[in-house]
Amino acid sequence: MKRVKQIVPTVAVLEAIARAGGTVAGDSLFMELRKSRDISFGEFLRLLMVLELRGLVRVTTASEGKFFVHITERALKILTTKEEPESD
Asked: Rounded to whole angstroms, what are the CA distances from 11 to 24, 61, 65, 78, 83?
């Protein structure tokens, strides 16, 4: 049986970061998303890259293998107005 890919909605990721106070460790965010969605770590990293390119998150490195994801003001505005972010 073929595995059907489940797309992680951008809003779900932004809401998870906002619930964590606006900044969250990358591994914690990944585990939070894994609770409700089937996503690999590689897919998670690609998703973060797309969100960063769109200006919705900022990713900073703390040490090798440890990084933090910060929500941007633009993303907070999208969440508060319930707009759907632009897609590619």
From this structure: 16, 23, 25, 9, 9
